[in-house]
Every structure is written in structure tokens, then in C-alpha cells.
Design goal:
Layout: H1 2-9, H2 12-15, E1 18-25, E2 28-35, E3 44-45, E4 51-57, E5 60-64, H3 66-76
Antiparallel strand pairs: 1-2, 3-4, 4-5
Length: 81
């Protein structure tokens, strides 16, 4: 179910870069998700179908405005000189 949501909201290609591990902690099931670093920016569709760009900043997930997203993408994936 989680993989299907990722495929629907992001892409099938992105879902292949995820590794999920399940374990028990204090009688609760925990899902740990590891994602390979990508070579491209990934946009996520919200519930209204609008694509948004998020980054991780310390322990937070931050949505960037289109202008800030463009600058972030330009800097992060700039061709190496």
C-alpha cells in the first residue's frame, strides 16, 4: 500500500529507490524507510494534484515556493566543473 502511494504521488521510478524495513518497538510496528540519493529533483503531487517541492532541513520537511525550488534545484544539481 505504501509503495502504491509513492508511485501515485511521486513516480514508479522513485519507488524503486526505496528500501523499507519493519520492526517492533514497544509492541508497535515501525517502518523505517531509506531512500537512495537521486540525480534529479522529485516533485510530489498533493491531494489536489498540485505538484510541490520539499526539502529536508535538519529535522523538518519544508515546502519551497516555485522560485526557491528553482534556485535550490539549480544549486544542488548544477553540473560539476
Amino acid at each position: 500500500m505504501l509503495t502504491q502511494e509513492v508511485e501515485n504521488k511521486i513516480s514508479k521510478e522513485f519507488a524503486t529507490k526505496m528500501n523499507m524495513e519493519f520492526s517492533k518497538l514497544e509492541n508497535k510496528e515501525i517502518c523505517k524507510i531509506k531512500v537512495e540519493t537521486g540525480n534529479d529533483a522529485i516533485w510530489i503531487k498533493d491531494n489536489e494534484g498540485v505538484e510541490r517541492f520539499y526539502i529536508r532541513s535538519q529535522n523538518q520537511t519544508v515546502a519551497l515556493s516555485p522560485r526557491d525550488a528553482a534556485e535550490y534545484i539549480r544549486e544542488k544539481w548544477r553540473p560539476k566543473e
